[in-house]
């Protein structure tokens, strides 16, 4: 069986997934056969060029015309286009992978999760960091009880691409399109990782959001984004989302969480760290050293840096000999392998839209807490 793929969006995430599709048959020979069928976007010229580069057979400028013609639909568009195309695909019985956060609003995320439950086909929300081998190793250690009862989880996701007030405006600065800023874009990853690793859910939060620069110059031809240049124009647009957030959280089983994300953390490019302290040990992970996991066990030897690159480590038997490290892009290969295999075999998959909704509820609670100045229930 060959799964035909429809993909909405062809920029950053479009490239990341298309690269993963190319690696699948080479490194994961038991992955289902796939066909890059149709690429969806609005700008015909850019779309045709992207379809060529990313290997898609055809293009469409209206998702409504193709969403029911494919076996799997990848929704990689900006957050405000996650709901309608994904719900339409699910209503046609087509499995969907959506970028994170699940939607720009809690209402939208609820609609997506309801449509997923009714369709009863696999769905995925693209929390790709679950697929770092060191994170999977951490999950195994926690599940085996190696660090005992968990007391603390501390997660930061720090970037600095907006610290320059002249950095151009992009859709990521718009509440209407993105829903929130650093909170939904980066915090969603940390909150998902924390809930996944602990196997526990956040029950109440106290949050603080901050916007440091209230308006930005309109972008140049590249449309804005992480490595964009400003155009010559002096025209500006308002920034209507947070540049940074921090939150304290209480988990159902009593663990304390502290979270922070920023686009203003000068010098930090993609610093996603998570530390977990338990009664019998601790774990520390840093995305910028993603082949390593720091492990403290109850044996008096202090923190040990474990290189997670052995063939018996998660996914490593598919790649290179020990010590031949993996990178950020491999997380997408692992994610697409698991999701597409679940689709081909008609099995359930996680993280799915229900997991995406669980994260969205925490994002929403953090915003409500910021507005009210009080702790709020999720
Ligand atoms: C931009 O902040 C971004 O690309 C996020 O959108 C991704 O989810 C994150 O993985 C890297 O940074």
UniProtKB/TrEMBL annotation:
Residue ranges annotated for the Gfo/Idh/MocA-like oxidoreductase N-terminal domain, each copy included: 4-126
Keywords recorded for this protein, A-Z: Oxidoreductase
Residue span(s) of domain GFO/IDH/MocA-like oxidoreductase: 135-284
Signal peptide start and end residues: none
Molecular function terms from GO: oxidoreductase activity
PANTHER family: BCDNA.GH03377 (PTHR43818:SF11)
Designated name of the protein: Gfo/Idh/MocA family protein
Species this chain originates from: Halobellus rubicundus
